[in-house]
Design goal:
The complex is a heterodimer of chains A (347) and B (78).
Chain A (H helix, E strand, L loop, with lengths): L2 H10 L1 H17 L1 H11 L7 H30 L5 H8 L6 H12 L7 H10 L4 H13 L2 H10 L2 H24 L8 H5 L14 H36 L2 H8 L6 H9 L6 H13 L4 H13 L2 H7 L5 H25 L2
Chain B lengths: L1 E6 L4 H17 L3 E6 L2 H6 L7 E4 L2 E5 L5 H9 L1
Parallel strand pairs in B: 1-2
Antiparallel strand pairs in B: 1-3, 3-4
Classes of the chains: A mainly alpha (347), B alpha+beta (78).
Amino acid sequence: MSAATQAKMVSAARPAAALGAVAAWAVLYSQLVPFSEWVVSLLPVERQSRLGEALAFFFYDAPKVLLLLTLVVFGMGIVRTWFSAERTRALLAGRREGVGNAMAAALGIVTPFCSCSAVPLFIGFVSAGVPLGVTFSFLIAAPMVNEVALGLLFALVGWRVALSYLAFGLMLAVVAGWVIGRLKLEAWLEPWVLRIHAGAADLPRTRPTLGERLVAGLDAVREIVGRVWYSVIAGIAAGALIHGYVPEDLLASIMGKEAWWSVPAAVIVGIPMYSNAAGIISVVEALLGKGAALGTVLAFMMSVIALSLPEMIILRKVLSVKLIAVFVAVVGVGILAVGFLFNLLFA
Amino acid sequence: MKDVKVLGPGCKRCETVVQMVKDAAAQAGVDVTVTKVTDYAEIAGYGIASTPGIVVDGKIVHAGGLPKAEDLVRWITA
């Protein structure tokens, strides 16, 4: 089916279909607990046993997270039709540091680009006159303040945590980018990057119709949910195992507030792990339920999402090892600060 | 003969776009040569910030994400 017929169908059937979809979504969402209890009751498993607890967690969280994921990705797919990397670059070119860092961090959340685009994007920004530190604010915020993570935290852990995560993630991107900008590390870019002076591409600008924006939302659901659903399920399974089998005292003693070293340990353990935000939230939920401290868990989550080895290997094409080391160090210190701060704030 | 360049480091999306261009050309009955441009310096030289990008006869027509099939037909028949 062509996109045009898709768009027409969406606009013609829009009110009825949208209402139906929202109603179906709400009904499904309201039945999560009965559904999970019903599934577990069908299984030859004692409900109060460890396995029963783990299964109940799994069958509650799996549909819940997938429903929420679909909603958040759909909404974000629509929002992103208002932004493009080229427009973002034009907005940021020649910005002063400070304001520029803040804008870059905010735009990092809403600008669509796939991770294999990181290098062209980096070169495109720097060569068009976006300051290096501002570019880094963008590159840190983009994976760190992930809309999927934000939506899921909001629903699974609560709005206070979600909003704090948003605020601290943005702050970290702004401050880390600003610090990298102050250090004046342009010389540590790979030399060929600085020789490129790209003009702004003369792209034909079209305004999508409302129908096209909705189709973009559906496309985002098909593409993103289609790509991440199994890592989400894996994450929920890990969360369910933690929920059912890990003894509370053990986790509270190694990830609790009293163990100050748990924050740096969480960051170090998190870096080599590569998971997307959607997969890690159920683990976060289960760890918190077992008495792990919020700051420690968030530090773990942030280092898994923001400091990933594959991304560093991609960025190695344009950044020297020294500059990557600075990037990791600055972001790592920021994550530590966020972790300790959260452990202080949320008793 | 239309000259189409697909700009991108070579991820799955870029491969998809190459195939989409070929399909669109077959559908429209237009002769095209499709070249993949994977060199970062060359990609940046076109002034785009998001890939995959599409260049038809030296002119940028698209950047970022998958293009729509009917747009592709329009670009290569224009």
